[in-house]
Amino acid sequence: MYFVGIDIAKHFHEADIIDDSDKVVLKKLRFSNSHDGYNKLMDSVRKLDGNFVFTMEAIGHYWFNLYAHLRQDNHTIHVINPIQSDALRNMYIRKLRMMSLMI
Q1: Cα 100 to chain center, whole Å?
Q2: CA triplet 20, 12, 44: central angle to 5 degrees?
Q3: Per DSSP, what are the bridge partners of residue 53?
Q4: Backbone phi, then psi, for 52, in 5-degree steps?
Q5: By CB count within 10 A, which of 2, 10, 72, 90 is most buried?
Q6: Residue 83 has what pLDDT?
Q7: Once rounded to an integer, what is the mean pLDDT over residues 16-29?
Q8: Weakest mean pLDDT among 33-37, 68-72, 82-86
């Protein structure tokens, strides 16, 4: 099983892929927000043997075309609310800061 985390942006997205043991398989694959960009992502994914779960933030409307292509190809996709992911990130940053102050 592989997990594909996608950072959504207006013109270009970036993807990281990890396996189910948290090993980074691919880091910072930059691809355009276009059909050619989707093909670039999928060419990289197809080189790996296994099932994939895709995750992305719902940033404006920029995520929707990628989501539609992945859905059409029957992939498992999780779309995350950016407000929630920001709150989660801040929670862990604060926790790490507090832990570093305690040491």
Answers
A1: 28
A2: 40
A3: 3, 76
A4: -130, 145
A5: 2
A6: 75
A7: 91
A8: 82-86
Share the mean pLDDT of the chain.
85
Q: Show the tokens assigned to 103.
A: 């040491």
DSSP 74: T
* Domain CATH for 90: 3.30.420
Structure tokens at 35: 């059909």
Compute CA distances 61 → 2, 33, 54, 58, 66, whole Å: 26, 11, 17, 7, 10
State which of 41-50, 76-85, 89-98 shows the largest mean pLDDT. Answer: 41-50
Give CA–CA dist 51/19, Å, rounded.
10
As for how many domains the chain has, the answer is 1
- In sequence order, the β-bridge partners of residue 74 are none
* Encoded amino acid at 80, one letter: I
Domain region containing 74: 2-102
Q: Which two tokens stand for residue 10?
A: 């207006």
